User: Fold this.
Amino acid sequence: MENASSSASSSKKQPIVIITIGMAGAGKSTFVQRINSYLHAQDPPKPPYVLNLDPAVTHVPFETNIDIRDTVNYQEVMKQYNLGPNGGILTALNLFTTKFDQVLGLVEKRSETVDYVILDTPGQIEIFTWSASGAIITDAVASSFPTVIAYVIDTPRSSSPATFMSNMLYACSILYKTKLPFILVFNKTDVQPHNFALEWMQDFEAFQAALATHSGTRDSEGEPTYMNSLMNSMSLVLDEFYKHLKAVGVSSMTGDGIRDFFAAVDASREEYEKDYLPELERARAARDQSLQAVKDDSLNRLMKDLEVDRAKNPDAAKLDRWDPAEEEEDDDDDLDVNLIDRSDDAWPGNYVDITRARRNGEEDINWPRPA
Ligand SMILES: Nc1nc2c(ncn2[C@@H]2O[C@H](COP(=O)(O)OP(=O)(O)O)[C@@H](O)[C@H]2O)c(=O)[nH]1
Ligand SMILES: [Mg+2]
Assistant:
């Protein structure tokens, strides 16, 4: 029986997790709303399991199963730690990460009935992609379920060669960091079709030609500028990167292209199984270790990110402080620490651990402070 267990993990039905990442305003949340309603409209309906990881969002345009805002009160985090919006979002994400083993447990319970799990991430891309917490969450998810990154791009805002390239370089850095199947989602095609992007990706000479017609690519002597030469060389590098990913155009507004997106997701599952699975045992061990470490060491390890950021940029740090004048009327003054699965029918049985902590009075229910 023992040797059957390794194959059992791959034969057991598992949902595929879609992690949406993208620049602020690219349309991640609108996209999640659209794919959510697309899945609900299938016959038979395939309601996904949806997680919101943006603590600062005021309005979530879709029904969530787990919402970081139920676990961490972002306003209260800013106040208690004397942080402004950026530090507040990062700290809220750090706090949530210390509970992420429970999140995985909740998703695991739905494995049999759910085909897709969708993660919406904070508006500011770097908070998720360059923080320890973002990396721990991504790795923990990817070592538990087949996972794909949906990199959402604001197509109309990427139509100049220089912005297009910087967006692609960012995508490239995330691909190499996560090593996960990757789908470029060119959003807002209702405003501008994405065929220019496909052309630039398939034919670097077309990209270089577009670059040449843009102003600032020649100096006063008519020679190509440094930036122009750099971008020409980079386009050759990116040519290799483009071979490793899928690209689809969608409009989260009209729903155009969503079917193509799901075709790319389903194809990504095979890619995950081929490329990621061989590494899985090692990844799972690493996951268990890092989730345990963030619990043991609470916040200290995660808060290093914030210290480093602040040391590097003290002026910005000074500005990113809690402003009492901005406090909203809020009668709930506690840092809320409950992890809630909203989709459970029983209420308040949804509270995962803290009701228990309160009842026993043993565990410290206050959030740990960084040393
Ligand atoms: N025209 C158009 N606008 C969109 C589309 N998707 C999102 N938007 C708009 O882009 C803005 C940012 O969207 P949001 O989902 O909040 O972006 P997020 O910060 O990435 O989560 C909002 O005003 C949306 O209405 C789309 O497909 N077409
Ligand atoms: Mg959003």
Residues 201 and 242 are 6 Å apart (CA to CA). Residues 28-29, 54, 57, 123 surround magnesium ion (ligand 2) (CB under 6 Å).
